[in-house]
Amino acid sequence: MLFQWKSWWRSMYKQNRVILKLGFLILFAGLGFRLLFSRSDVIVEVQETQKTLFSPPPVSFSLPEIADQIGPQEQPGRCNLFIGDWIPDPSGPVYTNETCKFIEDHQNCMKNGRPDNGYLYWRWIPRNCKLPRFNPHTFLQLMSNKTWALIGDSISRNHVQSFLCVLSKAEEAIEVYHDKEYRSRRWLFPSYNFTVSVIWSPFLAQAAIFEDYNGVSTAEIELHLDKLDTSWTDQFNNFDYMIFASGEWYVKTAIYYENNTVLGCHYCPKKNLTELGFNFAYRKVLGNFFNYILSSNHKGMIFFRTATPDHFENGEWFSGGNCKRTEPVKEGNFSLSEVQKILHEIESEEIGKATAKASEKGLNLKLFDVTRLSLMRPDGHPGPYRYFQPFAKDKNAKIINDCLHWCMPGPIDAWNDMLMEIVLNG
After folding, report:
1. Which residue in 358, 407, 410 sits closest to 386, CA to CA?
2. DSSP state of 244
3. Could you write out the DSSP letters of every residue in 212-235?
4. What is the pLDDT of residues 29-76, one digit of tens each?
5. Which of the residues 153, 229, 402, 413 is marked catalytic?
6. Does the pLDDT at position 236 exceed 90?
7. Order of strands across the sheet with 261-266?
8. Residue 357 carries which DSSP code?
9. Residue 154 catalytic?
10. Given the residues 154, 156, 168, 184, the one annotated as active site
11. Closest residue by Cα to residue 196 from 170, 174, 169, 171
């Protein structure tokens, strides 16, 4: 039997030797290529891992492709711009401290000597929707003959600088008004007859404030819970778009008034007054604020921006607290303080009630909730570089850090991307 098989094989080999050799050649060539490409895949994977760990982000990828690989897959339902991730962005900011003249010294981190720049190379990407870059040309064309106002505290002022820096890529704004202290200002984009205002109103309510630019007070704040601030109510009907914000100032020592009568206070142990707490005051004022909005017939778009968290670690601003981180944190790795949780809870509850009523009346009231995405950016604050070259004379100098406001350029620029998306697509 074995002899017969060998004879058959010799006969077949003689007759088909060319075909058999060709078949074996193809088989071995295929195996060789497979091994070669498998090894190449491994090499590429190792090289890419090394790049991720030890080098700046490569410039060849596109942001939407990366967004699809991060976090939960897109779920059916309504887009939420405020739930997402900060991902590496090698293209960097759209402006610099050298190309924009609107950056105030306290937020000009690069000019002031901040040694790292990695915080500039991240971009906010929502998980369930696309978020294009802010396009200043398109935006200005859309806003011809329109008016914007950002109303609130120094974070609103921080934001308006970012807003102007991005818009100035298309046309530089001209300042047409400022108050005595330069806290309320207005700019004009002449080719579009478009104006942007910032209105200083940290409580949104009437308040007597006895505090200098560095936060040093000579007396308690006198806050009228039942009276809104006329600095914005007198101009309310003049604006097509408004972004209101408050919150941070409510934790300061204050005496509360209602009907021009002292009602109580927050943190005034030397006064013989009822301690009402900042949460009582904030809820009271927001209730009055939203009632005012709901009683209006405003035809434009009104945003309420939630309070932004600070990132002081190892102490508070007055006790050596700092913010030395150099990159974003993952969600859940940095938590809101108890005070910030209270502020955000009050804001969420009050605007939740207000937006339901606004939709019934045909008012365009929007929540602009930047708390969550801001919490993940402890690297984006000036820290000691609120001041120019703070360690030039003494490397161990004790500097009061700014872990509340934002470097420019920096994370705050993402707010403009979200604003444009909401304005364009609701």
Report:
1. 407
2. E
3. -TTS-BSS-EEEEEEEE-HHHHTT
4. 443 433 333 333 333 333 332 222 222 332 222 223 323 322 233 445
5. 402
6. yes
7. 205-208, 221-228, 254-258, 261-266
8. H
9. yes
10. 154
11. 174
